Amino acid sequence: MPYYSYGDFLANNIYCVLLIPVLLLSLWAQLQVSGNFRRYSGVYNRRHITGAQAAEAVLRAHGVYDVGIRRVRGSLTDHYDPRDNQIYLSDDVYSAATVAAVGVACHEAGHAVQYAEGYGPIRLRQAIIPATQLGSKLSFLLLLVGMLLYSQTLFLAGIVLFSFTTLFQLVTLPVEFNASARALETIRSEYLLEGDEVTGAKRVLRAAALTYVAALLMSALQLLRFVLIFLGRGGGRRGGGRE
């Protein structure tokens, strides 16, 4: 049978206690995203600007002219792909002249501007993607094998690999916040939306940003659990090994 130490017990209990508020935050964030997007997808902006036109306005305002704007299937599937330098907007955004469409499209265009300007955090995020992908594939395998075989070396290797996932989530926060800030700044300066419409777009983007905060907290909580198990087992081993 695999060894189960007091450190494991303590780590799992701390994890379970902290997991409840993090899960509630994640659920609330998802409800906020879907609720605000649905609400403001029913509010047409006064200037009748579509999502595609809004994205183009952000690019033009920052002197970026080599980024394409395409339609993609699905709902809330909007994203910017640096591999082909294209902004992909969903059916609810691309040709929709709503407050939500403008907010989402401008946010994705903000990412394109970040790449064009060499924004520091997004360059860092790109640099750690290979390590993050490796960690997502191997970390849990190493953690499981290390736990079953009571190998501190394998378990520590799993922790190190998993930490890149948490680091990626951490670096993602300023990237997302900055893209939203660029979007709202252009929305105001280019008068894409007016008055209360800007407030609506801000609510949509704020709700989306909250999901990234929740994702970071969930990843950090998992990392904390693994570290506590590692430290607990190390202490138990120094105190006399297996019981």
Written account of the structure:
The chain is mainly α and 243 residues long. The chain has one domain. It is built from 7 helices and 3 strands. The chain has a 3-stranded mixed β-sheet. Strand 2 and strand 3 (86-90) form a beta hairpin. The radius of gyration is 22 Å and the shape is elongated.
Average pLDDT over all residues:
91
Strand runs, count = 3
Q: pLDDT under 50 segments (min length 5)?
A: 238-243
The geometry reads as elongated
What is the SS-derived class? mainly alpha
Beta-strand share of residues: 5-15%
Question: Taking Cα atoms only, what radius of gyration do you get, to the nearest Å?
Answer: 22 Å
Strand order across the largest sheet: 1-3-2
Provide the number of structural domains.
Answer: 1
Counting H and I runs of at least 4 residues, what is the number of helices?
Answer: 7
Instruction: Give the assembly state of these chains.
Output: single chain
Q: Give the distance, in angstroms, between the N- and C-terminal Cα atoms.
A: 12 Å
Largest sheet: 3 strands, mixed
Order of helices and strands: HHEEEHHHHH
- Residues in helix, %: over 70%
List keywords for this structure.
mainly alpha, 7 helices, single chain, 243 residues, three-stranded mixed sheet, disordered C terminus
